Amino acid sequence: MLTARQALIYGTQRLAAAGIDSARTDAELLLCHVLGVKRPRLLLVDDLNYEQRMSFERLIGARQARVPLQHLTGIAPFRYLELEIGPGALVPRPETEVVVEAALRWIRECGITRPLLLDLCSGAAPIALAMATELEQVDVVAVEKYPEAQAWGRRNAERVAATIAARGNQLEFLDADVCDLAALRGFEQRAAAIVSNPPYIPEGMVPRDPEVLQHDPHVALFGGADGFDVIRGLLDSAAMCLLDGGYLVVEHADAQGEPPASTAGSSTLVAGSLPELIRQHGAFVEVQDHRDLADRPRYTTAIRRAR
After folding, report:
1. What span, in angstroms and rounded, lies between the C-alpha atoms of 210 and 38?
2. Contact 279, 266 (CB under 8 A)
3. Given 3.30.70.120, 3.40.50.150, 3.40.50.2300, 3.90.550.10, which CATH number is that of 89-304?
């Protein structure tokens, strides 16, 4: 017989040997998934039956091979949500939660009645879903051109539809390229805020984690030679769609943050700097870069200049 405690020791050892930093946590979550219990009750389970042992063994093997934990459990936590997730969509990650928090804080303080909020490059729509479930009296539109990713967003929207309705909100999905100005004409000068986690990894940069490189869709990761191919078009769309004084929030790689103070005011684009790219666009003011909870450059905010 195998107890839950013994299974955890076994699973943790195997995952740690595979170089997974969160070995204990992942083993616990996989065992919870197999047993159908929450983590506080995990060690109250006595013995695993044969089917449970085999299922746990299979999941540990898959995680050891660096299949994302979220693909194995089918669930990705994001802020106050538990989102269904799987192949075809970028797995929501904690770093993006601080990007959403910045947007929520501004929206709550802006004083705009029933603001329109756009999530550009929405993927499985974690940003749009967070805004639609945490705010009140807002209209949210998730814009994504890849149907495989958007399908996960629509699926999760159905799961939280009652919460969205209870807050007096509306959430819509638009199948469109965020760089296609014609597709976004209906939002011209209407959006109070635009939030985006776009593809931003330069083509020559290999993601550190095998889970990202091998399982996240590359179209959601890579943004051309310098990482900014999609973002350049996104900035044009944001300039068109935002109200004067509207708020822009864009996530970026830690290497694409604010350049050193000695070069921040330069008229020459500093390679790899999203804040400088936004400043040079010309449609935005008050460009600021921000760090995440690990103190790494994570996202840039800006205000739409008055026309």
Report:
1. 28
2. no
3. 3.40.50.150
- Read off the pLDDT band of 260 (50, 70, 90): low
Q: Can you tell me the distance from the alpha carbon of 46 to that of 58, in angstroms, rounded to the nearest whole number?
A: 20
**Which residue in this structure is represented by tokens 């329109």?**
116
- The pLDDT of residue 272: 64
For 101, 118, 155, 237, 241, the CA distances from 188, given in Å and listed in that order, are: 25, 12, 28, 9, 4
Given a cut of 90, whether residue 264 has pLDDT beyond it is no
Residue 266: the pLDDT is: 41
Q: Is the predicted pLDDT of residue 229 greater than 80, yes or no?
A: yes
63 burial via Cβ count (<10 Å: 0-12, 13-18, 19+)? buried
pLDDT digits (tens, 9 = 90+) for 51-104: 999 999 999 999 999 999 999 999 999 999 999 999 999 999 989 999 999 999
